[in-house]
Each structure stands twice: as structure tokens, then as C-alpha cells.
Specification:
Structural class: alpha+beta
CATH superfamily of the domain at 126-234: Immunoglobulins
Organism: Ameiurus melas (Black bullhead)
InterPro entries: CD300_family_receptors, Ig-like_dom_sf, Ig-like_fold, Ig_sub, Ig_V-set
CATH architecture of the domain at 126-234: Sandwich
Strand content: 35-45%
Subcellular location: Membrane
Order of helices and strands: HEEEEEEEEEEEEEEEEEEEHHHHH
Shape: elongated
CATH class of the domain at 126-234: Mainly Beta
Largest sheet: 10 strands, mixed
Keywords: Membrane, Signal, Transmembrane, Transmembrane helix
Protein name: Immunoglobulin domain-containing protein
Number of strands: 19
Number of helices: 6
Length: about 325
């Protein structure tokens, strides 16, 4: 009877009409849940299933910070008396009835959310890109037909936070919207959102989402995230890498050339040896007939001189012979 009584009171405290939300498999949704300002300090939750057996997906009393629980995250903004719930990595099994709830003694305050998850294979769900520092990123995100007339945005998630922040959205077809180094262009005829990031830095690395604002201005509006972009920014621009590579190659060639020259000089200057280069350079000179005759004559004279030196009595015998003859 106690359970029945609580359930009856909760029905009386129904927070209003059902909020209809449509997401896409592989993407995500961000849902707004309004509450009265007098309940700022109460715990907030998001549960799934029939109200009689609603299963908590996330519940927290934390204020003004993102709290994560698996694929679900909750942020209670006490200033605007509104808490947001984000669901990531949607699957078709996530479809069904949910409740945004404010925990109260005896009577909870809640809003029913009907979530539909569609499987759309007409566009790419995830894109990975690597860009060098100083380069530009240009990516086109195809989106579902149901989001054609909704404003589009590019947001970036923060480390250990569920928030996916951005400053501008493009609200018209075929019109550029620029915000600093970011630009957006929505062609609704082709259902294509083109996003650009100019002069990227290493701080631009991270996770981005192409998304749409589905009736976001209303209390029951929500955001749809349909394409994930994983951006990696490398440390050096391509031009710098090429320049450094060329310089290193030229330096290597110069070192090799210097080593060869020094090696040749060392061999040439070695004492008591004649290098092959010297012999090759004087080969024709050694084969000349005149040179050979001159060298032969020189060797004969040298032999006579040596003979005479080795036979000192020869001249003396000749002198004695001449004296006796006379």
C-alpha cells in the first residue's frame, strides 16, 4: 500500500507533457530538464522504464559540475534551475521511456522523456584526421533528413567532462558563419555541414562533434550529435619537416665527401710508398723509347764507374806497361 500511495502522489506531481527526443545510433543526445527554483538543493536523476520500476541511469546531488555514470552524464545548473542529461554512444536498445526527476520526500517532481533511436547508414558516424601545426582542417558532415531545418554546430568535448561546448551555430542554408579560427557552412540541399579550423595548434587536438539544435529554444528542446571527429595535431608543419630532411641529407652528403677527400690525402702522403695514382700518372713517361735509352746509358756509365772503383790497379798496370815499351 505504501508503494501504491507514493506512486499515486507522484502521478499528481507530473511535471507536464512528454518530451520527444530522436537520436541516431552511434551518436548522442543532450536533454534539458527544467525544475522549480525552490528545488535547487534537491538531488536530480534520470531513470528508464515504467515509473513503477524506473531504473536509475544516473543520480547525483552535485551542483554545477558534470557527473558521469557510464554513458550517462548529468549537470545541475542551479542558476538557471535546469539540469542537463547527455547520453553517448546511442544504440537502438536505448530507445524507450525515461524520466527526468527531482528527488523529494514523498513526492518526486519529474518530466517524461520518450527517446527514439534511429539506425541511419546514409552518413559516416566517425572521422579521424591528422593535421600538422599551422595547417587547416576541412571536413564535411552528412546529416539525417530530419535535421535539415535545424541550426547546426561544431562542438568540442573537454577532458573528463561531458560538456561539448561551442559559441556559434549556423542557422541558414548556404551561409558562412565564422567564430575565430572556426567556420561553418550548411548546405541543406545536400544535407552537408562543412566545418573548418584554420591554422591549427596542438591545443586543437581532441574530440569534436557535428550536431544540430532540435527545437533547442523551447523548454523541451534537445541537441543531437551525429558525427564524431577525432583530430590529432602533429608537432611540426609539413614544410618544416621537408626542409629539415633536405638539410640533414645535404649535411650527410658533405660529411661523406669530406671523409673521402681526407682518406685520399692520407694515402698520398704516406712515406716510402708510391700511390697507384702516381704510377698511373707516370705510366706513359716510363714507356717512352728515348727515356728508356737514356736510362740504359746512365746505367752503363754507372756500371763502368763501379767497376773502376772496384779495380783500382787497372790504371797503374797500363802506366807500367807503357814505360817498359819505351
Amino acid at each position: 500500500m505504501k508503494i501504491l500511495l507514493i506512486f499515486t502522489l507522484c502521478l499528481i506531481s507530473d511535471g507536464g507533457a512528454t518530451e520527444n527526443v530522436t537520436g541516431y545510433s552511434g551518436g548522442g543526445v543532450l536533454i534539458k530538464c527544467k525544475y522549480y527554483t525552490k528545488y535547487r538543493e534537491n538531488q536530480k536523476y534520470f531513470c528508464k522504464g515504467p515509473w513503477t520500476s524506473c531504473s536509475y541511469q544516473i543520480k547525483t546531488g552535485a551542483k554545477n559540475e558534470w557527473i558521469n555514470s557510464g554513458r550517462f552524464s548529468l549537470f545541475d545548473d542551479t542558476k538557471s534551475a535546469e539540469f542537463s542529461v547527455m547520453i553517448r554512444e546511442l544504440t537502438v536498445e536505448d530507445a524507450g521511456a525515461y524520466y527526468c526527476g527531482v528527488d523529494k520526500y514523498w513526492m518526486d517532481i519529474y518530466t517524461r522523456v520518450e527517446l527514439k533511436v534511429k539506425e541511419d547508414l546514409s552518413y559516416v558516424k566517425s572521422i579521424s584526421k591528422t593535421v600538422h601545426v599551422g595547417g587547416d582542417l576541412n571536413i564535411s558532415c552528412k546529416y539525417p533528413e530530419s535535421l535539415r531545418s535545424d541550426p547546426k554546430f561544431l562542438c568540442k568535448t573537454r577532458l573528463q567532462r561531458a560538456a561539448c561546448s561551442y559559441k556559434e551555430s549556423v542557422k541558414e542554408s548556404r551561409k558562412d558563419v565564422n567564430e575565430g579560427k572556426f567556420s561553418l557552412y550548411d548546405d541543406r540541399e545536400t544535407q552537408m555541414l562543412t566545418v573548418s579550423i584554420r591554422n591549427v595548434t596542438e591545443q586543437d587536438s581532441g574530440e569534436y562533434w557535428c550536431g544540430a539544435e532540435a527545437a533547442w529554444k523551447s523548454d523541451h528542446g534537445y541537441r543531437v550529435y551525429f558525427t564524431q571527429i577525432n583530430l590529432t595535431v602533429s608537432g611540426f608543419p609539413a614544410s618544416t619537416v621537408i626542409t629539415v630532411s633536405v638539410i640533414l641529407l645535404l649535411l650527410l652528403i658533405g660529411i661523406i665527401f669530406l671523409i673521402v677527400i681526407l682518406h685520399k690525402r692520407r694515402r698520398t702522403q704516406s712515406p716510402g710508398t708510391m700511390t697507384p695514382t702516381y704510377r698511373e700518372a707516370n705510366g706513359d713517361y716510363e714507356k717512352d723509347p728515348n727515356v728508356l735509352h737514356f736510362q740504359s746509358k746512365q746505367m752503363t756509365n754507372q756500371s763502368d764507374s763501379v767497376y773502376q772503383s772496384l779495380n783500382p790497379n787497372t790504371n797503374q798496370s797500363d802506366s807500367v806497361y807503357q814505360s817498359l815499351k819505351c
